[in-house]
Amino acid sequence: MKYRNLTDKEIKKLELQMCTCDEWSTIFVTPDFDPKTIYNSHFSGVVKIGSQNEKIKLFGGIKRQAGIYNSTIHNCGIGNNCYINYVKNYISNYNIDDHVIINNVQLIANEGENSFGNGEKIAVLDESGGREIMMYDQLSAQLAYITTLYRHRSKLITKLEELIRAYALEKRNVRGYIGKNCVITNSGSIKDVWIGEHVRIEGARHLDNGSIISNQIAPVTIGNNVILKHFIIQSGSSVTEGVILNKCYIGQGCELGKNYSADNSVFFANCQGFHGEACSIFAGPFTVTHHKSTLLIAGMYSFLNAGSGSNQSNHMYKLGPIHQGIVERGSKTTSDSYLLWPAKIGPFTLVMGRHYKNSDTSDMPFSYLIEGNDKSWLAPAVNLRSVGTIRDAMKWPRRDKRIDPNKLDRINFNLLSPYTIQKMINGIEILNRLKLVSGETSNEYIYNNTSISSMALNKGIALYNIGIDKFLGNSLITRIKDIDFRNLEDIKKQLRPDSDIGKGDWADIAGLIAPKNEIDTILCDVESGKIKSLCEFELRIKAIHESYYNIEWNWSAGLLESRLDKKIEEITVKDLIKIVQRWKKSVVDLDQMLYNDAKKEFQLSAMTGFGADGNADTQMADFEMVRGKFEDNSFVKEIKSHIQRKSQLGDDIIARLKKCESFYD
After folding, report:
1. Tens digit of pLDDT for each residue in 296-311?
2. Collapsing DSSP states into helix, strand and coil, what is residue 237?
3. Which of 333, 369, 413, 584 could lock 650 by a disulfide, CB 3.0 to 4.6 Å apart?
4. Mean of the pLDDT values across residues 179-201?
5. pLDDT per residue over 228-270, tens digit each?
6. Comparing C-alpha atoms, which of 232, 244, 248, 208 is closest to residue 122?
7. In total, how many domains does the chain have?
8. What CA dihedral angle connects 649, 653, 658 and 661, to 10 degrees?
């Protein structure tokens, strides 16, 4: 925009309107400036003021003339059609973009050069330090995971922190920023904060040293009595209702409210925190805690549902709070559950009761970890048949609140993947070894400070095999169902791996399911200097995520050969039919288990408390009005439909294979 100095006439008009200035010559306005848009305000330093010609609509339908009223402005640039009124102290060293509303605010100021939270370190997992994440305003869950857990690669950590420092240096500025269409009302002090576009700050108490990354598609909301210090908040998130954060990173689509408090913690995409408390946690995507008495401390989580009163301990009262724990994806903690760190809980595990031994169940996914007689009892694989597990897996994609097209975190929602199936394979080997060592007649088997009953052990082996059969059949059918195969060679051609990418072990990198070898290649390229920027790193991570279904088969092909005990070149049509038949049986068996599990929610005991003041018929009628009939439940219908669809798919594939066998013979 073009600016000019004020005329003498305009200055006199402003002075009549109770305006003062240290030096009017340092005030610059647009050619269409109208003095009536400024009243009872003081100016100092260099101030540039845009056009203030429009009426501004406030909440409730009230309209006000754009302009500056009852405020003190120092060294600021003010965009077009802003409404600034009743700033009790002052606005200092800020660039304010177009269509911003600032009304009834204590203070907005920036002092000196600032990076606005970029480069700040967050002490996750270990309160005493050693695993700090250096945050920046494009931080992904994957980069944070690497910098947290790969401390054994000191050169890698040094390189990554150098890149983040360089990024933070680029962000340094002597002026803060308030983006277009922001609304800041009824708030306390805002110091050294970079505020993106379309942010709503209403009733916040104090914001200090941070960045709010927001845009029109995915705006950010900061609400009443919120206190934020040393923070970054990503697009589409809301922090409201008395939340207190210190040294925290909030990812995209998160919700924090109802007096939640957190210190030295990171929360990635779609996390929710209400009522409770977090200290030094790494909350991977979809970590959810809703209860007042819940404390998450010194742990790493993702896809977690923390029950009321969930608690952990990281302090042995010896060398300080140095212990950490990892609860792998998809786990749940029930009410009043407790875990003594250090511990590692396998994926999709239900934790019930209080556990005082340092357990490691990472190779026993889909398990129950239950307290009984002062012991931690492990029931391997039983969570595979839980309707709650499947319901969670279905709801997570639907509850992805990231509407910003630039999604920072790479999230794979698959329940069964090379990552979980490899753990099932390990689990079977471990359980069989326990039987061999302790004897098949043993009533109790000890594994990593947990106890496993004989019945649970055998059931676990059977369920893991069902899970493996289901995954392998899924992969095989997906690989061949859309090709027009005429003979066995056509099929073998499709079954041959596309490359070596994906072979070997896989890892869950805070939501990203990826081959360890590919992650290692990226990290080596960082160490060697081949990857020269944070953007390059994220693009490489994104490429792995987007190629998941291609490289998954490269791993599954090895599983296919292992289960058949023959190479792909030796596979017959009968072998493939056998795999599909086992897949069909596994799908039907698991779905039937889910159906039976869901039915428990409609048994007579579940109706307790229904039909008050009535007889059994009233109880049943009341229950059905509130919960509906079992067969009409949407999830139950989906289970039955899933059985029909998958059975038909299996029959169709088998029929095609039999035709192929006949043609081939």
Report:
1. 999 999 999 999 999 9
2. coil
3. 584
4. 98
5. 999 999 999 999 999 999 999 999 999 999 999 999 999 999 9
6. 248
7. 1
8. -170
In the predicted model, is pLDDT for residue 470 greater than 90? yes
Q: Which domain holds residue 586?
A: 574-664
End-to-end CA gap in the chain: 80
CA distance 109 to 328: 42
Residue bearing tokens 């169940």: 361
- Most distant pair of Cα atoms in the chain: their distance: 102
Residue 415 in domain:
no
Rounded Cα–Cα distance for residues 521 and 383 (Å): 34
586 occurs within a structural domain = yes
Number of neighbouring beta carbons within 10 Å of residue 480: 19
- The number of beta carbons lying within 10 Å of the beta carbon of residue 417 is 20
Residue 450 pLDDT > 80, yes or no?
Answer: yes
- pLDDT of 662 reads 58
Amino acid, res. 20: T
Q: Token match 């018929």: residue? A: 617
448: amino acid identity, one letter: N
Closest CA to 505 of 518, 494, 495: 518
To the nearest 10 degrees (0 to 180), the angle between helices 634-664 and 454-480 is 60
In contact, 186 and 206? CB cutoff 8 Å: no
Question: Under 8 Å CB-to-CB from 484, ≥6 apart: which residues?
Answer: 490
Q: Residue 127 corresponds to which amino acid?
A: E
pLDDT band of residue 521 (cuts 50, 70, 90) is: very high
Q: Return the structure tokens found at 579.
A: 């795999």
Higher pLDDT, 112 or 632: 112
The backbone torsions φ and ψ at residue 68, rounded to the nearest 5 degrees and listed phi first, read: -125, 125
Residue type, 652: D
For residues 340 and 357, the answer to whether their CB atoms sit within 8 Å is yes
Identity at 278, one-letter amino acid code: A
Burial class (CB in 10 A: 0-12, 13-18, 19+), 34: middle
Q: Is the pLDDT of residue 471 over 80?
A: yes
225 within some domain? no
Residue 92 in any domain: the answer is: no
